[in-house]
Amino acid sequence: MSLRSRSITIARAALTKELHLSSVSASSAQRAWQRSLLQNNTNTSMASSYSVDFFTLRTFSTKPEDAATDEPAAADASTDDKTEETAEKASSSSSSSSEKNGEEADKKIAELEQQVKDLKDNLLRSLAEQENTRRIAKRDVEQARSFAIGSFAKSLLDTSDNLSRALDAVPEELRHDHDHHPVLATLYEGIAMTDDGLTKAFAKNGLQKFGLPGDKFDPNIHEALFEYPDPNGTAGNIGQVMKKGFMLNSRVLRPAEVGVIKAP
């Protein structure tokens, strides 16, 4: 039940009670007048006229009911208008609050998405850096393992060079002459066996000799000490080897010292 209906019902009940009291008072007054008129032997027509007057008064007493009814109706109408305005204001306030909350939620979501993107980028960068660090460390370990004997091998290169010089110092015709020069032949064989053993030990540890006459000159692995013309050789090739080069695991440990043939 609305506020207006309840107000109308209360007003009607109050007016009905008032009219009932008025009618009771009118009936009592009418009976008093009638007794007075009967006692004074008054004309019956006057009593009836008085009755009519009382009934007329009773009829007139209903007029305030209409005024009282109209006033609560107007009050109820104004109350309904105020209620509607309040409801509209509350609705507009609720809608604006909802829009504001929605904007704040969208802004918060955008900030969280940006944070997730930044964290993912940082994570990927960290993983890439870790992978690079592992790869570099692995390469360094392999290089350290491969070239750990570099300094030791360099100290033995002079020994290999001396053995090569000793072999070259024996003339070719006497190297295997056990009949006339058995001591020299035996010495040559011993030096050759020593040189072969050292060369095998070098190869077992990744150290190899290079630089032979007739090879193409390569400035990355050869060191040219001089050039000379040779009609029997090819220009740009190695004609003479002063010192053989050594390479440790595909890295030049010492370049070969050579003489290069030039065009005549």
Which helices and strands occur, and which strands form pairs?
Layout: H1 3-39, H2 44-60, H3 63-146, H4 150-169, H5 182-204, E1 207-210, E2 222-229, E3 238-243, E4 245-248, E5 251-254, E6 256-262
Parallel strand pairs: 2-6
Antiparallel strand pairs: 1-4, 3-6, 4-5
Describe the structure.
The protein is α+β, with helices and mostly antiparallel strands and 264 residues long. The protein folds into three domains: 3-95; 150-205; 207-264, Head domain of nucleotide exchange factor GrpE (Nucleotide Exchange Factor Grpe, Chain A, domain 2), CATH 2.30.22. The protein has helices at 3-39, 44-60, 63-146, 150-169, 182-204, and strands spanning 207-210, 222-229, 238-243, 245-248, 251-254, 256-262. It has a three-stranded antiparallel β-sheet with strand order 1-4-5. Strand 4 and strand 5 (251-254) form a beta hairpin. It is rod-shaped, with a radius of gyration of 66 Å.
For the record, the count of structural domains works out to 3
Indicate the proportion of strand residues.
Answer: 5-15%
Oligomer: single chain
Mind summarizing the main beta sheet?
3 strands, antiparallel
Average residue-wise pLDDT: 76
Overall 3D geometry? rod-shaped
